[in-house]
Design goal:
Blueprint lengths: L14 E3 L10 E8 L6 E8 L5 E8 L5 E2 L1 E5 L3 E6 L8 E9 L6 E8 L11 E6 L2 H14 L10 E3 L7 H8 L4 E6 L7 H13 L3 E5 L22 H6 L15 E5 L17 E3 L14 E7 L13 E8 L2 E6 L20 H13 L5 E7 L5 E3 L2 E8 L10 E6 L5 E2 L4 E4 L6 E10 L10 E12 L1
Parallel strand pairs: 10-11, 10-12, 12-13, 13-18, 20-26
Antiparallel strand pairs: 1-2, 2-3, 3-7, 4-5, 4-8, 6-7, 8-9, 14-15, 14-16, 16-17, 17-18, 19-21, 21-24, 22-23, 22-25, 25-26
Helix pairs in contact: 1-5, 2-3
């Protein structure tokens, strides 16, 4: 069975519009938009009418035990926002109770129940988040990961503000331990401990885990802190292993200012599913600008060349990936939060930026097994030859590169052997007997096809060797 990443085109897909409080006289009527998200969700009310809100209070309770959820309530003349300052449970019932006054009519009350998203498809797969950006952008980005509902719901304990304080290398490694992927997203702030972060990511990747970087993770053109050589840690093992830039040149901000997807550059890949021509990047990209070739980097999509960008010759990469052993790195050439957030990102109304982020994390974890192992060539039954050749094939939804699949075979229930490529040759099989060849595929992450293909055939008694 093929596992596919599914995410709403925007956070609006996780919203439900509740009943409207009727207006009294010339007062207001208010309708809530209640999200099904779990990571610090937000409920908003849009009010219409000739009056203005004067007082508002609200509380949110969990339906199962009436426990209060911490909230922060803000309002304007015609709008109310209820921020839930906690991560909610999956498939759990909650209710928001609102009391408001517009100075014209008596206080009106509204109670709206809802149920959050069901449990993620893979709740045990977790991500550690290193960020250097405004908390509003962090929240928006994590809402998109929450909406994907693919792996463990984000919690504040897994989000580290890497622009403040100082973490030792051992502290970074400790934070990463037990997780399957790291998301490192830079913003307008610099990382406070790039060498330690770089060393920790190198340690993490060396153990076969995935890393996704985005949002000026290779340098900070606004501050001039990093050069091409830095790659979140100058002279660290992360730098020497992963950095694709070797000319030590600092790019000015205008050369990484975003733009539109150049559809002719999009390559078929698990990560590019869902990309379409209206993808637009706002502001700085991640730093994958005209990467050097021959260093294991695959550019999967680029932005249209713009005037002033490296003399208009090279496009800015939108999406790149590379693999070293079982470790996968994805670099997003856009900030993975919405343009509606200050200094963001991408426009969720016209582009699948949130979906690409979710797919990048899922792909970097390398947890999708191949399927459909089968024989593409096999001897006839019966076989007139005692020396026979088999060829195999399988499908891998997140195949990293051609030839990455491995095939394991055995003859007549013997030990499993690793095939050379997708071929196995059996020499001088016993004549006049039936023989059974079994095979399954595995990928570079160690995931194997749960099904095994088998073929039983007779080698004729007078078969030629």
């Amino acid at each position: 069975m093929v596992r596919r990443v599914a995410i709403a085109a925007s956070i609006l897909a996780c919203l439900t519009v509740g009943p409207t409080v009727p207006a009294f006289g010339s007062g207001l009527s208010c309708a809530p938009a209640i999200t099904k998200l779990r990571y610090r969700p937000q409920i908003t009310y849009q009010c219409t009418g000739s009056a203005a809100l004067t007082t508002v209070s609200a509380q949110v309770t969990r339906s199962s035990d009436a426990a209060l959820v911490p909230t922060t309530v803000t309002f304007s003349a015609t709008g109310i926002t209820v921020d839930l300052d906690a991560t909610l449970g999956s498939a759990a019932g909650y209710s928001v109770d609102l009391a408001a006054n517009d100075g014209v009519d008596p206080e009106f009350d509204l109670s709206s129940p809802w149920t959050t998203l069901p449990a993620p498809a893979h709740p045990s797969l977790s991500v550690e988040y290193f960020t250097a950006m405004d908390p509003t952008a962090v929240r928006d980005m994590l809402h998109r990961i929450d909406a994907a509902n693919l792996f463990a719901v984000p919690i504040d304990a897994r989000v580290i503000d890497a622009s403040a304080g100082s973490m030792t290398l051992s502290q970074v490694e400790s934070a990463l331990a037990g997780h399957q992927a790291a998301l490192v997203v830079g913003g307008d702030a610099s990382f406070a401990y790039p060498a330690n972060l770089g060393g920790g990511l190198a340690w993490f990747a060396a153990h076969g885990h995935g890393v996704v970087t985005a949002g000026q993770t290779h340098w900070a053109p606004a501050t001039g802190v990093w050069t091409y050589e830095s790659a979140v840690g100058l002279n660290t093992s992360w730098d020497t292993t992963w950095d694709i830039f070797k000319d030590n040149v600092q790019l000015p901000a205008f050369e990484v200012s975003g733009g539109d997807l150049q559809t002719s550059t999009v390559r078929a890949h698990f990560l590019t599913n869902g990309l379409f021509s209206s993808f637009h990047v706002y502001g700085y990209g991640s730093g994958e600008v005209a990467p050097h070739f021959g260093l294991g980097t695959n550019i999967l999509a680029s932005l249209r060349p713009t005037a002033g960008f490296l003399n208009g010759t090279y496009p800015q990469a939108l999406l790149t990936e590379r693999q070293v052993g079982a470790s996968r790195l994805v670099d997003l050439g856009y900030r993975p939060w919405a343009s509606t957030v200050a200094t963001g990102g991408f426009d969720p109304a016209v582009s699948p930026g949130g979906a690409v982020l979710a797919r990048a994390l899922w792909w970097s974890m390398n947890r999708i097994p191949p399927y459909g192992t089968h024989f593409t060539a096999k001897p006839p039954n019966p076989s007139a030859w005692a020396t026979v050749t088999f060829h195999f094939s399988a499908t891998d939804p997140d195949l990293d590169h051609s030839g990455a699949l491995r095939y394991h075979y055995r003859l007549d229930g013997g030990s499993w052997r690793l095939a050379v490529g997708n071929t196995a040759v059996f020499y001088n099989l016993a004549k006049g007997r039936h023989h059974t060849v079994s095979v399954y595929a595995s990928d570079s992450g160690g995931n194997r096809d749960p099904s095994t293909a088998s073929y039983t055939f007779l080698v004729s008694a007078n078969a030629r060797s």
